[in-house]
Design goal:
This protein is an alpha+beta fold. The chain is 46% helix and 17% strand. It is built from 14 helices and 11 strands. The strands form 3 sheets. The chain has a 4-stranded antiparallel beta sheet with strand order 8-3-10-9, with helices on both faces. The chain has a 4-stranded antiparallel beta sheet with strand order 4-7-6-5. Strand 1 (52-56) and strand 2 (59-62) form a beta hairpin. Helix 1 (4-12) crosses helix 2 and helix 3 crosses helix 6 (152-178).
């Protein structure tokens, strides 16, 4: 059973989207004169001034929201040993909430969107992880109530809002970098050396890591199963030709993936996010036009583009997957075993991976290094006790989307035991982290110059109050 404070931290979720940094970044002036304050700035939506922590553009951060985020940070392990510590934490939390709001508003300006299906998938994954910490559903729901959640639905809504905001922030940074609007920042060796001691304190001792290269073999359907799926999608296509306005209804009724409940909504996508066969058709369609049947490694699709903007399209699809069974799984295992034999006999990894690796799985062929403790259980078990350059027997990994196992043949390419970090080992990680922090800081500082930002809450003035 987990300690209750850890349970609360899990249930309430991450307080802030911003990642911890090696060096605390100052936010600069609290109020800018770049934009006029909103009307009735002393009372927004009927709230008194003392209820407002900050105003960013036309959005308000309430003191109660800051307090909630601080409590979540403390539940997650933030140390507070004095009133000064608490005031410092409140300042840091408020600064990060302001930074996050600036990025969310910039994401909206840049028309960055997050698909509902992506949010739902992330929330589902987090709920599954949290539920795994409890012995029963009743215990889980009790913890939700203790964390201030009236119901699971309330928690999912709150978590979905947090996921969306986090992904909007990530998305706008990626878009601005693609568009060349965020320039790289050089980091000197002296700065890396200076940050090394902070890095060791923040990251802790080096944990055991392993690297590998792998060939992932998907379980594929038989020819008969593919024929049945093709017949099904053809019948749906004929139905759509008679009633094209029913696309969403048919997707909700028939589609065999996570977008089903959303009427097949895939959200906004740029080129390269989907498999090539799907991408080519999706970007060739005009809005409202229904595609012919498209076959990919996932099955058979019908696609409709709803909206188009430069370099992006918003689309829906209907997916029919061929059914898979245990005979298909056995066939995939035999193929994976034969690949391991060929590899051990001197076969080229490059040649074998080109021929057999399932690119549609999204699994990388090469993983330079990865913490052992974070490996999925099938990987941990298969790699236990293996030596450098050893080729591991084929092992099964669940494929939730397909409902069967896929199989992995891997070779160990890197081994590193737990211990203390050296500067040489940490150098690249520190350089990348410092560079990313400074790019983010530069962007946020520029946004502050263009956005009305007024901070109304000063934690230092609360030091003498009853906390």
């Amino acid at each position: 059973m987990m300690p209750r404070i850890a349970v609360r931290a899990l249930v309430t979720g991450a307080a802030l989207a911003a990642a911890p940094s090696f060096v605390h970044a100052q936010t600069g002036a609290r109020t800018t004169g770049a934009a006029k304050p909103p009307a009735a700035s002393d009372s927004v939506k009927g709230l008194p001034l003392d209820g407002i922590a900050a105003i960013i553009g036309d959005q308000v951060i309430l003191v109660s929201e800051v307090v909630t985020a601080v409590n979540q940070a403390r539940a997650g392990g933030a140390k507070v040993e004095s009133a000064k510590d608490l005031a410092r934490l409140e300042k840091d939390v408020l600064d990060q909430m302001i930074d996050a709001e600036l990025l969310v508003q910039k994401a909206k300006d840049e028309k960055v969107e997050v698909a509902d299906a992506e949010i739902a998938s992330a929330v589902d994954e987090r709920e599954k992880k949290i539920r795994g910490q409890f012995k029963s559903d009743a215990e889980f729901r009790t913890a939700l109530k203790e964390a201030g959640m009236g119901s699971l639905e309330e928690w999912r809504k709150l978590e979905g809002d947090q996921v969306k905001r986090s992904k909007l922030q990530q998305g706008v940074m990626q878009k601005l970098q693609r568009d060349g609007k965020v320039t790289s920042v050089n980091v000197s060796e002296a700065e890396i050396a200076e940050a090394f001691s902070v890095f060791k304190l923040r990251v802790g001792p080096k944990e055991a890591r392993v690297g590998l290269r792998q060939i992932v073999v998907a379980t594929k359907p038989s020819d008969d199963s593919k024929k049945r799926a093709k017949s099904k999608i053809d019948s749906l296509y004929a139905e759509l030709m008679k009633r094209p306005e029913d696309f969403e209804l048919i997707a909700k009724r028939e589609s065999m993936d996570g977008t089903r409940e959303l009427g097949g909504d895939l959200g906004w996508n740029r080129r390269g996010r989907m498999v090539p066969e799907f991408d080519r058709v999706m970007f060739s369609l005009n809005p409202g036009v229904i595609s012919p049947v498209v076959e990919t490694a996932f099955g058979f699709h019908i696609i409709r583009v709803d909206r188009v903007q430069p370099a992006e399209v918003k689309a829906r699809h209907i997916l029919i997957r061929p059914q898979l069974d245990s005979a298909d799984e056995r066939r995939a295992k035999l193929l994976a075993d034969s690949i391991a034999v060929a590899w051990r006999a001197g076969g080229s990894f490059d040649s074998l991976s080109v021929k057999f690796h399932d690119n549609a799985s999204g699994e990388d062929k090469t993983i330079p290094e990865f913490p052992r403790s974070e490996l999925p259980e099938p990987y941990r078990n298969a790699l236990e006790g293996k030596t450098l350059n050893e080729i591991v027997d084929a092992f099964a990994v669940p494929d939730p989307a397909a409902g069967v196992n896929k199989f992995v043949v891997a070779q160990v390419t890197f081994l590193d035991d737990a211990g203390e970090w050296t500067l040489a080992e940490a150098r690249d990680r520190i350089r990348e982290q410092l560079s990313e922090e400074r790019k983010m800081r530069r962007l946020i500082d520029n946004l502050k110059k263009k956005t009305y930002v007024s901070v109304r809450y000063d934690p230092d003035k609360q030091l003498g109050s009853d906390r």
